[in-house]
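Proteins fold reproducibly. Look at a concrete instance:
___
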Amino acid sequence: MFGKINTSILLAITSLFLFVGCGSSDSNDDDKKTRQYKVSLKNITSAQPFAPAAIIVENSSTDFNAYKIGQVSSLGLETLAESGNPQVLLDEANTEEVLYTNSFDGLTTPGSTGEIVFTVDNENLKLSILSMLVKTNDAFVAANDIDLNFTGTKTFNLNVYDAGTEANDELATTVPGLTGEGFNAQRNDTNNFVTLHSGLVTVDDGLSSSALSFSDRWDNPAAVLTIERIK
């Protein structure tokens, strides 16, 4: 009788430890999926402030394209590239159920660095970042679908693109960085699709109507993106 009682107790204790062990394994699996990153964007132009940068993080289950060379800009991209406001683009991304969206606080001025830290409980991640050059008509510096499945730190040089939604007339009335108009729903660029930006002309290079000077020009790359995997 005593032996039977001890056997029952032993079985109960063994079952308890098995149950606890299963719970611990689930928790560890969740921890393994948690990713934390620090994203830093350095403005290396001489005189072009960057508008608040849009950050979009998704995984392999979504396929949101913030921009694509040769394709027509979305309303969100047009708004970002013409006015500097990232919110419409972020709203478009959220409609596609991406994992994370955010934007930098304020401008990233020449020589300075904007930073943001974020955590996502998911795997197979990719990141897009976009920011308007505010002393242009519709130029933006960007990178699309950067693979985040790495450890340590990676650095990327970013080029400037043309949204193809507004003519590059460089007028004081159409360049928001010169207190001109920002977003305008009318699309008057002859291309009407995203291209690598050909650069400014400016008054110093012969465009007499331009309100921009040689110092407002940039060379590619215009920004350095650093991504650090924290966790």
Notes: Residues 2-33 form the longest helix (32 residues). DSSP finds three helices and nine strands in the chain.
